[in-house]
Input
Amino acid sequence: MAEVRLDNVTRQFGSVVAVNAINLTIADGEFVALLGPSGCGKTTTLRLIAGLEQADGGHMYIGDRDVTNLPPRDRDIAMVFQDYALYPHMTILDNIGYPLKVRGTPRAELTKRVTEVAERLQIGNLLQRRPGQLSGGQQQRASVARAVVYHAQVFLFDEPLSNLDAKLRVEARAFLKRLQHELDVTAVYVTHDQAEAMALADRIAVMNHGRIMQLGAPLEVYRRPQNLFVASFIGSPPMNLLPCRVDLGARRLVFAGGAALEMTGMMERLPASLRDGEMVTLGIRPEHITIRETAGASTLPVKVYVTEPLGGESLVITQMGDLLISIRLFQDEPPSLPDAVWLELNMTHTFLYGAEGELMR
Ligand SMILES: Nc1ncnc2c1ncn2[C@@H]1O[C@H](COP(=O)(O)OP(=O)(O)OP(=O)(O)O)[C@@H](O)[C@H]1O
Ligand SMILES: [Mg+2]
Output
């Protein structure tokens, strides 16, 4: 059993609370991604699990062992560092084989296993070189290979693919996912690339300011962001977030500049606590908006700002006052549109966030 459990774990650096009372249970064999902006505490969380960082509060468990005070070598963990941390004087073969060597694996067996992993990561021809003779992306793959060559109970990855070009990145990520499923190990994977987190992880923990803002399966987090932070972070482009005022009497949401939308389709599920005149944020993903060339009963008047062909789909970015509203169309070529158009929102796909950023419905 290699369940990893963080119980109220905190780590402070002076006045900075890098990890703020985190509770997180990663099941045996589960792949969890820590996703969040720079400085949100991802690396610190990983280093705490590895034992490279001492917690200021809370406890950590691997399986049924309390590892809070155990040194890294007693935790049976393999880690890929953000800065590779290869030994400069050793060949790539010896670097990757190091975890096997310290465990007394015979040389022939070591070479065989290193070669296998290196080939799958497309660095099989570089084994006799030293780290200084490799590109950043090649060093990164060597560092991944070293972590996975020995089958530890828990893998920790800190942005292991960030230096690879788009094509290699997709290949390496598929390799990691296969490997993790084949070996059935527990993995924690840090990234600020949401596509990578969505593709790899069984569950994603979205972090901000040392806290977990939401934990869930990738599509769960995408389909139902629990707060404004997650809503603004997940999705490319992210959800449109439109501040507005509630007019309960007229059953409308009123936007700056006076445009309004009927709350039809939302009304029966509106929270009872919603007050007349309250300021809220209406959230809607770019794929749930239709562009009209004439005004409808409940449409928002906007100006077309730019259009972007993305290959396979296109984006229309429109403007209402200070707000930019993106619309995703599943067509190669953006339509040619007049300057002024109207937006029809599919209200069953909208979210309402309250003043504290909390999801209301
Ligand atoms: N050794 C340290 N001393 C002082 N402050 C630190 C130290 N390590 C991290 N911090 C601070 O703790 C916070 C979290 O840092 P951390 O490295 O965990 O972020 P991160 O999410 O991994 O960011 P990135 O995506 O940029 O790698 C940051 O504000 C950082 O400046
Ligand atoms: Mg980091």
The chain has two domains: 4-225, 240-353. The pocket of adenosine-5'-triphosphate (ligand 1) is lined by residues 13, 16, 18, 36, 38-44, 192 (CB under 6 Å).
